[in-house]
Amino acid sequence: MVAVEVVDVTDELKSDYDVVVAGGGAAGLSGALMLARARRSVVVIDAGAPRNAPASGVHGLLARDGMPPAELVERGRAEVRGYGGQVVSGEIGAVTREEAGFRVALTDGRTVRARRLLLATGLVDELPEVPGLRSRWGRDVLHCPYCHGWEVRDQAIGVLASGPLSVHQALLFRQWSDDVTLFCHTMPSPSGEEAEQLAARGIRVVDGEVASLEIVDDRLAGVRLNDGTVVKREALAVAPRMVARIGFAEGLGLRPVEHPSGAGEHLPSDATGRTDVPGVWVAGNVTDLTAQVGSAAAAGANAGAQINADLIAEETREAVAARTRGDAPFSAASESRVCEAVLGDRRHGL
Ligand SMILES: Cc1cc2nc3c(=O)[nH]c(=O)nc-3n(C[C@H](O)[C@H](O)[C@H](O)COP(=O)(O)OP(=O)(O)OC[C@H]3O[C@@H](n4cnc5c(N)ncnc54)[C@H](O)[C@@H]3O)c2cc1C
């Protein structure tokens, strides 16, 4: 007969957890899976808006290539729950330090306490304000060639200059198509070495501000300039400013800083996800702006293991201290106290 362990999980928040995970995308769920398997009490509190939600599939993810983002998250949630972890819908409004850990307040008024925090709330893509652009985001308005490059291979690709890495982005997309046009939009026309690189790779440069996108039959058809010219394009790459979603952690002194690449703001951490605030780890896009789903999941798993190790170190310190004080179960001192209480003067020894 096979013994089956039944793990009963509800979505009702308890008052205390070893770990509260903020955010249930690839990073948060992966961290929670690690922690639940380490027999930690863990809850993922998730607002339910993963960054790649507008995309039809997750690409470049080994063994799951093309899976719809919502399905990936659902599978992850089921795996966490399968080991007794909880996944609860809600938005965290604030986290503050308490004597023995942290207090996590949800915007709906619920609160929980945690010994450790894993913050995996991702980032916000701040898109350029061009009429028609936002509604195409994740479909034919793209940012990452590794996520979408294959799907738009050999198409007429535009690159909207909207950040310090736009020339680099145009050179990257050239790998997938030999028909790439860089729209300077509000940025100065590339000069010097950059202009030479673009020319050498056959990338057309169009000066002038972009007025809007031309959409025909629910597809991108072109890019309209302020002077009325329409340049036919089937896909448009943009460089959104990427800003870590971490405002709720200000009470801990955690604030995003400008990323050295100029691509946005992130919350710095060490290679294991540990922040400057003891007991708080981060994983995924909130700290690594360029993390894809695979690397976000890996960072979450790594942070989960580090948190478990940190808790083990704390519990071991406490056990050693208790043993030294003589109040540990089965220490010589506690055995003697029990003996005294139970047998009193009926004791006899050799
Ligand atoms: C259009 C698009 C397409 C992409 N395609 C691909 C692809 O094909 N392949 C690939 O590998 N990567 C792709 N990416 C990148 C991918 O989205 C990220 O790598 C991934 O989402 C990062 O995971 P994460 O867990 O860090 O953040 P997210 O997946 O964004 O998860 C963060 C979670 O935290 C929640 N949250 C935020 N604030 C709070 C709060 N205060 N309280 C509670 N919960 C909160 C959010 O609702 C969200 O559910 C794409 C990105 C975009 C924008």
UniProtKB/TrEMBL annotation:
Query: What Pfam families is this protein classified in?
Result: Pyr_redox_2
Keywords attached to this Swiss-Prot or TrEMBL record, sorted alphabetically, are: Flavoprotein, Oxidoreductase
Q: Does the keyword Nucleotide-binding apply?
A: no
Q: What's the catalysed reaction?
A: [thioredoxin]-dithiol + NADP(+) = [thioredoxin]-disulfide + NADPH + H(+)
**Record domain FAD/NAD(P)-binding: where:** 17-298
The coiled-coil segments of this chain are none
Q: What is this protein called?
A: Oxidoreductase
Q: Which organism is it from?
A: Streptomyces hygroscopicus
Q: What is the lineage of its organism?
A: Bacteria, Bacillati, Actinomycetota, Actinomycetes, Kitasatosporales
